[in-house]
Amino acid sequence: MTELKVDVEPGEVGFDAARLARIGSHFARYVDDGRLPGWLILVSRAGKIAYLGKYGCRDLETGAPVEWDTVFRIYSMTKPITAVAAMMLYEEGAFELKDPVSGFIPAFEGTRVYRSGPALKPVTEPLREPIKIWHLLTHTAGLTYGFHHAHPVDTLYRAAGFEWWKPEGLDLAGCCDVWASLPLLFQPGTEWNYSVASDVLGRVIEVISGQSLAQFFAERIFQPLGMADTRFWVREDAVGRLAAMYSPQPGTLRATRNDAMDLIARQPPSCCVGGGGLVSTAADYHRFTQMLRRGGELDGVRLLSDRTLRYMTRNHLPGGADLEAFGRPLFAETTFDGVGFGLGFSVVVDPVANKVLSSPGEFAWGGAASTAFWVDPAEDITALLLTQLFPSSTHPLRPQLRQLVYQALVD
Protein backbone atom coordinates (compact mmCIF):
# COMPACT_ATOMS: atom_id res chain seq x y z
CA MET A 1 0.00 0.00 0.00
CA THR A 2 1.26 3.47 -0.90
CA GLU A 3 2.07 5.54 2.19
CA LEU A 4 0.28 8.85 2.51
CA LYS A 5 2.35 11.71 3.87
CA VAL A 6 2.97 15.41 3.32
CA ASP A 7 5.86 15.66 0.86
CA VAL A 8 6.73 19.33 1.03
CA GLU A 9 6.39 22.48 3.09
CA PRO A 10 3.47 24.47 1.61
CA GLY A 11 5.65 27.52 0.96
CA GLU A 12 7.97 25.51 -1.27
CA VAL A 13 5.14 24.98 -3.78
CA GLY A 14 3.51 28.40 -3.56
CA PHE A 15 1.01 27.92 -0.73
CA ASP A 16 0.75 30.05 2.40
CA ALA A 17 0.76 27.48 5.23
CA ALA A 18 -1.54 29.45 7.53
CA ARG A 19 -4.04 30.02 4.76
CA LEU A 20 -3.91 26.38 3.73
CA ALA A 21 -4.68 25.39 7.32
CA ARG A 22 -8.07 27.09 6.92
CA ILE A 23 -9.19 23.95 5.07
CA GLY A 24 -9.07 21.85 8.21
CA SER A 25 -10.72 24.36 10.51
CA HIS A 26 -13.51 25.02 8.01
CA PHE A 27 -14.40 21.41 7.31
CA ALA A 28 -14.04 20.41 10.97
CA ARG A 29 -17.18 22.45 11.65
CA TYR A 30 -19.16 20.07 9.40
CA VAL A 31 -18.18 17.22 11.71
CA ASP A 32 -18.49 19.12 14.97
CA ASP A 33 -22.09 20.14 14.27
CA GLY A 34 -23.03 16.66 13.01
CA ARG A 35 -23.43 17.32 9.29
CA LEU A 36 -20.58 14.99 8.26
CA PRO A 37 -19.29 11.85 9.95
CA GLY A 38 -15.68 12.54 8.99
CA TRP A 39 -13.48 13.39 6.03
CA LEU A 40 -10.07 13.13 4.42
CA ILE A 41 -8.69 15.91 2.20
CA LEU A 42 -5.51 15.91 0.11
CA VAL A 43 -4.03 18.78 -1.91
CA SER A 44 -0.92 18.48 -4.05
CA ARG A 45 1.07 20.79 -6.27
CA ALA A 46 3.72 19.76 -8.78
CA GLY A 47 3.08 16.19 -7.68
CA LYS A 48 3.97 16.87 -4.03
CA ILE A 49 1.38 16.62 -1.26
CA ALA A 50 1.23 20.01 0.46
CA TYR A 51 -1.88 19.47 2.57
CA LEU A 52 -3.18 16.27 4.09
CA GLY A 53 -5.94 16.35 6.66
CA LYS A 54 -8.41 13.98 8.27
CA TYR A 55 -11.07 14.58 10.87
CA GLY A 56 -13.98 12.80 12.49
CA CYS A 57 -15.14 9.21 12.26
CA ARG A 58 -15.36 6.56 9.59
CA ASP A 59 -18.00 4.96 11.82
CA LEU A 60 -19.91 7.22 14.22
CA GLU A 61 -21.55 4.31 16.02
CA THR A 62 -18.27 2.66 17.02
CA GLY A 63 -16.26 5.85 17.21
CA ALA A 64 -13.66 4.47 14.76
CA PRO A 65 -11.77 7.47 13.33
CA VAL A 66 -11.00 8.28 9.71
CA GLU A 67 -7.52 6.88 9.05
CA TRP A 68 -5.15 7.45 6.13
CA ASP A 69 -6.03 4.00 4.78
CA THR A 70 -9.82 4.26 5.24
CA VAL A 71 -11.74 2.76 2.32
CA PHE A 72 -14.50 4.91 0.79
CA ARG A 73 -17.26 4.19 -1.74
CA ILE A 74 -16.42 6.56 -4.60
CA TYR A 75 -19.54 5.94 -6.76
CA SER A 76 -19.35 8.16 -9.87
CA MET A 77 -15.63 8.79 -9.47
CA THR A 78 -15.64 5.40 -11.22
CA LYS A 79 -16.69 7.22 -14.42
CA PRO A 80 -13.33 8.88 -15.20
CA ILE A 81 -11.64 5.50 -14.72
CA THR A 82 -14.07 4.00 -17.25
CA ALA A 83 -13.29 6.84 -19.66
CA VAL A 84 -9.56 6.19 -19.30
CA ALA A 85 -10.13 2.47 -19.88
CA ALA A 86 -12.13 3.16 -23.04
CA MET A 87 -9.55 5.55 -24.42
CA MET A 88 -6.79 3.01 -23.76
CA LEU A 89 -8.66 0.73 -26.18
CA TYR A 90 -9.17 3.67 -28.54
CA GLU A 91 -5.40 4.14 -28.64
CA GLU A 92 -5.09 0.49 -29.69
CA GLY A 93 -7.38 1.13 -32.66
CA ALA A 94 -10.28 -0.89 -31.20
CA PHE A 95 -12.89 1.71 -32.18
CA GLU A 96 -13.38 5.23 -33.49
CA LEU A 97 -15.24 7.86 -31.51
CA LYS A 98 -17.85 8.09 -34.27
CA ASP A 99 -18.53 4.33 -34.25
CA PRO A 100 -22.16 3.40 -33.50
CA VAL A 101 -22.65 1.76 -30.12
CA SER A 102 -24.89 -0.82 -31.82
CA GLY A 103 -21.79 -2.28 -33.44
CA PHE A 104 -20.82 -3.52 -29.97
CA ILE A 105 -24.26 -3.78 -28.32
CA PRO A 106 -26.75 -4.74 -31.09
CA ALA A 107 -29.82 -3.92 -28.95
CA PHE A 108 -29.16 -0.21 -29.48
CA GLU A 109 -29.85 -0.58 -33.21
CA GLY A 110 -33.60 -0.27 -32.59
CA THR A 111 -33.63 2.33 -29.81
CA ARG A 112 -36.27 5.06 -30.22
CA VAL A 113 -36.50 8.63 -28.93
CA TYR A 114 -39.18 10.14 -26.67
CA ARG A 115 -41.26 12.85 -28.35
CA SER A 116 -44.29 13.42 -26.09
CA GLY A 117 -46.82 11.87 -23.75
CA PRO A 118 -46.86 10.33 -20.27
CA ALA A 119 -44.73 7.41 -19.10
CA LEU A 120 -47.73 5.08 -19.43
CA LYS A 121 -48.12 5.89 -23.14
CA PRO A 122 -45.08 7.70 -24.54
CA VAL A 123 -44.99 8.78 -28.16
CA THR A 124 -41.60 8.02 -29.72
CA GLU A 125 -39.76 8.60 -32.97
CA PRO A 126 -36.84 6.86 -34.72
CA LEU A 127 -33.21 7.84 -34.19
CA ARG A 128 -32.05 10.51 -36.62
CA GLU A 129 -28.48 9.28 -36.10
CA PRO A 130 -27.14 6.32 -34.13
CA ILE A 131 -25.77 6.61 -30.61
CA LYS A 132 -21.99 6.84 -31.01
CA ILE A 133 -19.12 6.15 -28.63
CA TRP A 134 -18.43 9.86 -28.16
CA HIS A 135 -22.04 10.35 -27.08
CA LEU A 136 -21.42 7.89 -24.22
CA LEU A 137 -18.19 9.62 -23.17
CA THR A 138 -19.86 13.05 -23.15
CA HIS A 139 -23.29 12.10 -21.70
CA THR A 140 -24.98 13.36 -24.86
CA ALA A 141 -26.46 9.97 -25.85
CA GLY A 142 -29.99 10.74 -24.62
CA LEU A 143 -29.82 8.15 -21.83
CA THR A 144 -30.85 9.08 -18.30
CA TYR A 145 -31.03 7.96 -14.65
CA GLY A 146 -34.19 6.88 -12.87
CA PHE A 147 -33.27 8.98 -9.84
CA HIS A 148 -33.66 12.26 -11.72
CA HIS A 149 -37.48 12.23 -11.21
CA ALA A 150 -37.80 14.95 -13.88
CA HIS A 151 -39.12 13.34 -17.06
CA PRO A 152 -41.44 10.51 -18.19
CA VAL A 153 -38.40 8.57 -19.41
CA ASP A 154 -36.94 8.71 -15.88
CA THR A 155 -40.21 7.11 -14.74
CA LEU A 156 -39.77 4.32 -17.30
CA TYR A 157 -36.28 3.61 -15.92
CA ARG A 158 -37.68 3.31 -12.40
CA ALA A 159 -40.50 1.06 -13.62
CA ALA A 160 -37.83 -1.21 -15.13
CA GLY A 161 -36.06 -1.38 -11.75
CA PHE A 162 -33.41 1.29 -12.30
CA GLU A 163 -33.30 4.15 -9.81
CA TRP A 164 -30.07 4.29 -7.83
CA TRP A 165 -29.31 0.60 -8.28
CA LYS A 166 -29.77 -2.24 -10.76
CA PRO A 167 -32.33 -5.08 -10.55
CA GLU A 168 -30.97 -8.25 -8.94
CA GLY A 169 -29.94 -10.94 -11.38
CA LEU A 170 -29.11 -8.65 -14.31
CA ASP A 171 -25.52 -8.50 -15.50
CA LEU A 172 -24.17 -5.51 -17.42
CA ALA A 173 -25.13 -7.01 -20.79
CA GLY A 174 -28.69 -7.51 -19.54
CA CYS A 175 -28.87 -3.95 -18.19
CA CYS A 176 -27.78 -2.55 -21.55
CA ASP A 177 -30.47 -4.55 -23.36
CA VAL A 178 -33.12 -3.05 -21.05
CA TRP A 179 -31.81 0.51 -21.47
CA ALA A 180 -31.76 0.03 -25.25
CA SER A 181 -35.44 -0.97 -25.13
CA LEU A 182 -36.41 2.28 -23.37
CA PRO A 183 -36.79 5.55 -25.27
CA LEU A 184 -34.00 8.11 -25.24
CA LEU A 185 -34.64 11.48 -23.64
CA PHE A 186 -33.57 13.32 -26.81
CA GLN A 187 -31.86 12.74 -30.14
CA PRO A 188 -28.17 11.82 -29.59
CA GLY A 189 -25.82 14.78 -29.60
CA THR A 190 -28.49 17.45 -29.14
CA GLU A 191 -28.33 17.89 -25.34
CA TRP A 192 -26.35 16.81 -22.25
CA ASN A 193 -27.94 14.68 -19.53
CA TYR A 194 -26.21 12.86 -16.68
CA SER A 195 -26.96 9.21 -17.27
CA VAL A 196 -26.09 5.51 -17.46
CA ALA A 197 -23.89 6.32 -20.47
CA SER A 198 -20.74 5.35 -18.55
CA ASP A 199 -22.34 2.01 -17.64
CA VAL A 200 -23.01 1.34 -21.32
CA LEU A 201 -19.42 2.36 -22.10
CA GLY A 202 -18.30 -0.22 -19.56
CA ARG A 203 -20.13 -2.89 -21.55
CA VAL A 204 -18.41 -1.71 -24.75
CA ILE A 205 -15.08 -2.21 -22.93
CA GLU A 206 -16.15 -5.74 -22.00
CA VAL A 207 -17.16 -6.61 -25.56
CA ILE A 208 -13.93 -5.27 -27.07
CA SER A 209 -11.55 -6.67 -24.45
CA GLY A 210 -13.23 -10.02 -23.86
CA GLN A 211 -12.84 -9.40 -20.13
CA SER A 212 -15.22 -8.39 -17.40
CA LEU A 213 -14.99 -4.72 -16.47
CA ALA A 214 -13.59 -5.69 -13.06
CA GLN A 215 -10.86 -7.77 -14.70
CA PHE A 216 -9.95 -5.05 -17.19
CA PHE A 217 -9.72 -2.40 -14.48
CA ALA A 218 -7.62 -4.64 -12.25
CA GLU A 219 -5.17 -5.84 -14.91
CA ARG A 220 -4.85 -2.73 -17.07
CA ILE A 221 -5.21 0.14 -14.56
CA PHE A 222 -5.17 -0.75 -10.86
CA GLN A 223 -2.31 -3.23 -10.77
CA PRO A 224 -0.02 -1.17 -13.03
CA LEU A 225 -0.68 1.99 -10.96
CA GLY A 226 -0.38 0.21 -7.61
CA MET A 227 -4.00 0.90 -6.61
CA ALA A 228 -4.31 -2.16 -4.37
CA ASP A 229 -7.47 -1.09 -2.51
CA THR A 230 -9.51 0.02 -5.54
CA ARG A 231 -12.07 -2.52 -6.72
CA PHE A 232 -15.83 -3.16 -6.96
CA TRP A 233 -16.05 -4.61 -3.46
CA VAL A 234 -13.88 -4.48 -0.38
CA ARG A 235 -11.27 -7.16 0.10
CA GLU A 236 -12.11 -9.42 3.03
CA ASP A 237 -9.02 -8.29 4.93
CA ALA A 238 -9.97 -4.61 4.44
CA VAL A 239 -13.62 -4.67 5.56
CA GLY A 240 -12.66 -3.16 8.91
CA ARG A 241 -11.28 -0.10 7.09
CA LEU A 242 -14.49 0.59 5.15
CA ALA A 243 -16.22 3.83 6.17
CA ALA A 244 -19.89 3.59 7.10
CA MET A 245 -22.50 5.33 4.95
CA TYR A 246 -24.61 8.25 6.16
CA SER A 247 -27.42 10.46 4.88
CA PRO A 248 -28.74 13.80 6.16
CA GLN A 249 -31.61 13.57 8.61
CA PRO A 250 -34.58 15.57 7.26
CA GLY A 251 -34.82 18.91 9.02
CA THR A 252 -31.63 18.80 11.08
CA LEU A 253 -29.28 17.57 8.29
CA ARG A 254 -27.40 15.55 10.91
CA ALA A 255 -25.50 12.63 9.40
CA THR A 256 -27.58 9.52 10.11
CA ARG A 257 -26.58 5.95 9.37
CA ASN A 258 -27.93 4.68 6.05
CA ASP A 259 -28.05 0.95 6.72
CA ALA A 260 -29.27 -0.06 3.26
CA MET A 261 -26.47 1.74 1.47
CA ASP A 262 -23.94 0.69 4.08
CA LEU A 263 -24.27 -2.90 2.85
CA ILE A 264 -23.08 -1.92 -0.62
CA ALA A 265 -19.47 -2.85 -1.39
CA ARG A 266 -19.24 -5.35 1.46
CA GLN A 267 -19.73 -8.26 -0.96
CA PRO A 268 -19.30 -8.80 -4.71
CA PRO A 269 -22.07 -7.09 -6.70
CA SER A 270 -24.15 -8.98 -9.23
CA CYS A 271 -23.31 -6.32 -11.80
CA CYS A 272 -20.11 -4.26 -12.08
CA VAL A 273 -20.80 -1.08 -14.07
CA GLY A 274 -18.73 1.72 -15.54
CA GLY A 275 -20.74 4.49 -13.92
CA GLY A 276 -20.19 3.67 -10.26
CA GLY A 277 -19.52 1.06 -7.64
CA LEU A 278 -15.79 1.24 -6.95
CA VAL A 279 -14.28 1.61 -3.51
CA SER A 280 -10.91 3.26 -3.05
CA THR A 281 -8.55 4.99 -0.65
CA ALA A 282 -6.96 8.43 -0.70
CA ALA A 283 -3.57 6.92 -1.56
CA ASP A 284 -5.00 4.93 -4.46
CA TYR A 285 -7.08 7.69 -6.02
CA HIS A 286 -4.22 10.15 -5.54
CA ARG A 287 -2.14 7.87 -7.77
CA PHE A 288 -4.89 7.98 -10.39
CA THR A 289 -4.98 11.81 -10.27
CA GLN A 290 -1.19 11.95 -10.53
CA MET A 291 -1.32 9.79 -13.65
CA LEU A 292 -3.82 12.30 -15.05
CA ARG A 293 -1.75 15.40 -14.17
CA ARG A 294 1.36 13.79 -15.70
CA GLY A 295 -0.40 13.26 -19.01
CA GLY A 296 -1.23 9.57 -18.70
CA GLU A 297 1.98 8.27 -17.09
CA LEU A 298 3.11 7.56 -13.52
CA ASP A 299 6.31 5.94 -12.25
CA GLY A 300 7.19 4.61 -15.69
CA VAL A 301 3.71 3.18 -16.34
CA ARG A 302 1.93 4.85 -19.25
CA LEU A 303 -1.80 4.26 -19.67
CA LEU A 304 -2.49 7.02 -22.20
CA SER A 305 -0.53 9.41 -24.35
CA ASP A 306 -0.42 13.01 -23.18
CA ARG A 307 -2.12 14.09 -26.40
CA THR A 308 -5.03 11.73 -25.80
CA LEU A 309 -5.47 13.03 -22.28
CA ARG A 310 -5.35 16.66 -23.41
CA TYR A 311 -8.01 15.80 -25.98
CA MET A 312 -10.19 14.15 -23.32
CA THR A 313 -10.01 17.17 -21.05
CA ARG A 314 -11.11 19.76 -23.61
CA ASN A 315 -14.73 20.89 -23.68
CA HIS A 316 -16.46 18.68 -26.27
CA LEU A 317 -19.91 20.28 -26.06
CA PRO A 318 -20.99 21.73 -29.43
CA GLY A 319 -19.88 25.29 -30.04
CA GLY A 320 -17.94 25.38 -26.76
CA ALA A 321 -21.19 25.65 -24.80
CA ASP A 322 -21.33 25.18 -21.04
CA LEU A 323 -23.67 22.76 -19.29
CA GLU A 324 -26.04 25.57 -18.35
CA ALA A 325 -26.71 26.23 -22.03
CA PHE A 326 -26.49 22.67 -23.36
CA GLY A 327 -27.36 20.45 -20.41
CA ARG A 328 -30.37 19.57 -18.33
CA PRO A 329 -29.40 21.04 -14.92
CA LEU A 330 -30.48 18.13 -12.77
CA PHE A 331 -28.54 16.20 -10.16
CA ALA A 332 -24.92 15.89 -11.30
CA GLU A 333 -21.47 15.88 -9.76
CA THR A 334 -20.61 19.39 -10.98
CA THR A 335 -22.07 22.86 -11.29
CA PHE A 336 -23.33 24.04 -14.69
CA ASP A 337 -22.45 27.72 -15.28
CA GLY A 338 -19.06 28.08 -16.94
CA VAL A 339 -18.44 24.32 -16.93
CA GLY A 340 -18.29 22.20 -20.06
CA PHE A 341 -17.76 18.49 -20.52
CA GLY A 342 -14.99 16.45 -22.10
CA LEU A 343 -14.56 12.72 -22.55
CA GLY A 344 -15.33 11.55 -19.01
CA PHE A 345 -14.64 14.76 -17.08
CA SER A 346 -16.26 18.10 -16.38
CA VAL A 347 -14.05 20.93 -17.69
CA VAL A 348 -13.99 24.52 -16.41
CA VAL A 349 -14.49 26.87 -19.35
CA ASP A 350 -15.08 30.18 -17.54
CA PRO A 351 -14.29 30.54 -13.81
CA VAL A 352 -16.03 33.94 -13.75
CA ALA A 353 -19.30 32.43 -14.96
CA ASN A 354 -18.81 29.56 -12.53
CA LYS A 355 -18.42 31.99 -9.59
CA VAL A 356 -15.82 29.77 -7.91
CA LEU A 357 -12.05 30.30 -7.78
CA SER A 358 -10.51 27.90 -10.30
CA SER A 359 -8.59 27.85 -13.59
CA PRO A 360 -9.76 27.41 -17.18
CA GLY A 361 -9.07 23.82 -18.18
CA GLU A 362 -9.48 22.34 -14.70
CA PHE A 363 -11.07 18.91 -15.05
CA ALA A 364 -12.93 17.03 -12.37
CA TRP A 365 -15.71 14.76 -11.21
CA GLY A 366 -17.29 13.50 -8.00
CA GLY A 367 -19.36 10.75 -6.45
CA ALA A 368 -22.80 10.43 -4.89
CA ALA A 369 -21.42 10.10 -1.35
CA SER A 370 -19.94 13.64 -1.52
CA THR A 371 -16.50 12.57 -2.74
CA ALA A 372 -14.71 14.69 -5.35
CA PHE A 373 -11.43 15.35 -7.12
CA TRP A 374 -10.02 17.85 -9.55
CA VAL A 375 -6.88 18.34 -11.60
CA ASP A 376 -5.77 21.88 -12.52
CA PRO A 377 -3.12 21.75 -15.27
CA ALA A 378 -2.62 25.55 -15.24
CA GLU A 379 -1.59 25.64 -11.57
CA ASP A 380 -0.38 22.01 -11.47
CA ILE A 381 -2.74 21.26 -8.56
CA THR A 382 -4.70 18.14 -7.70
CA ALA A 383 -7.19 17.87 -4.86
CA LEU A 384 -9.18 15.02 -3.36
CA LEU A 385 -12.10 15.02 -0.92
CA LEU A 386 -13.32 11.77 0.62
CA THR A 387 -16.27 11.37 2.98
CA GLN A 388 -19.46 9.24 3.05
CA LEU A 389 -22.59 11.39 2.95
CA PHE A 390 -25.30 10.53 0.43
CA PRO A 391 -26.47 12.40 -1.61
CA SER A 392 -23.65 14.69 -2.66
CA SER A 393 -25.93 17.70 -3.20
CA THR A 394 -26.51 18.10 0.56
CA HIS A 395 -23.70 20.60 1.28
CA PRO A 396 -21.53 22.86 -0.96
CA LEU A 397 -18.36 20.97 -0.05
CA ARG A 398 -16.78 21.04 -3.49
CA PRO A 399 -16.91 24.78 -4.23
CA GLN A 400 -15.87 25.54 -0.65
CA LEU A 401 -12.81 23.32 -0.96
CA ARG A 402 -11.87 25.08 -4.20
CA GLN A 403 -12.08 28.55 -2.70
CA LEU A 404 -10.03 27.46 0.32
CA VAL A 405 -7.33 25.86 -1.84
CA TYR A 406 -6.97 28.77 -4.24
CA GLN A 407 -7.03 31.50 -1.61
CA ALA A 408 -3.98 29.80 -0.10
CA LEU A 409 -2.04 29.93 -3.36
CA VAL A 410 0.19 33.03 -3.17
CA ASP A 411 3.09 32.57 -5.58
Distance between the first and last residues' Cα: 33 Å
Helix and strand content put the structural class at alpha+beta
Largest sheet: 8 strands, antiparallel
The strands making up the biggest β-sheet line up spatially as 3-2-1-16-15-14-13-12
Order of helices and strands: HHEEEEHEEHHHHHEEHEHEEHHEEHEEEH
Tally of individual helices: 14
- Helix fraction by DSSP (H/I, runs of at least 4): 25-40%
Shape: globular
Mean pLDDT, to the nearest integer, reads: 96
What is the count of β-strands?
A: 16
Q: Strand fraction band?
A: 15-25%
In quaternary terms, these chains amount to single chain
Low-confidence stretches: none
* CA gyration radius, whole angstroms: 20 Å
Helices, strands, pairings?
Layout: H1 17-20, H2 22-32, E1 38-45, E2 48-59, E3 64-65, E4 72-75, H3 79-91, E5 112-116, E6 123-126, H4 133-138, H5 152-159, H6 172-181, H7 197-209, H8 213-225, E7 246-248, E8 255-257, H9 259-262, E9 278-280, H10 282-293, E10 297-298, E11 301-302, H11 306-312, H12 323-326, E12 339-341, E13 346-348, H13 351-354, E14 363-366, E15 372-376, E16 381-386, H14 397-406
Antiparallel strand pairs: 1-2, 1-16, 2-3, 4-9, 5-6, 7-8, 10-11, 12-13, 13-14, 14-15, 15-16
Helix pairs in contact: 3-7, 6-7
Q: What can you tell me about this protein's structure?
A:
This protein is of the alpha+beta class and 411 residues long. Helices cover 29% and strands 17% of the residues. It contains 14 helices and 16 strands. The protein has helices at 17-20, 22-32, 79-91, 133-138, 152-159, 172-181, 197-209, 213-225, 259-262, 282-293, 306-312, 323-326, 351-354, 397-406, and strands spanning 38-45, 48-59, 64-65, 72-75, 112-116, 123-126, 246-248, 255-257, 278-280, 297-298, 301-302, 339-341, 346-348, 363-366, 372-376, 381-386. Strands 3-2-1-16-15-14-13-12 form an eight-stranded antiparallel beta sheet, sandwiched between helices. It has a two-stranded antiparallel sheet with strand order 4-9. A hairpin with a 2-residue loop joins β1 and β2. α3 (79-91) packs parallel to α7 and α6 (172-181) packs across α7 (197-209). The mean pLDDT is 96.
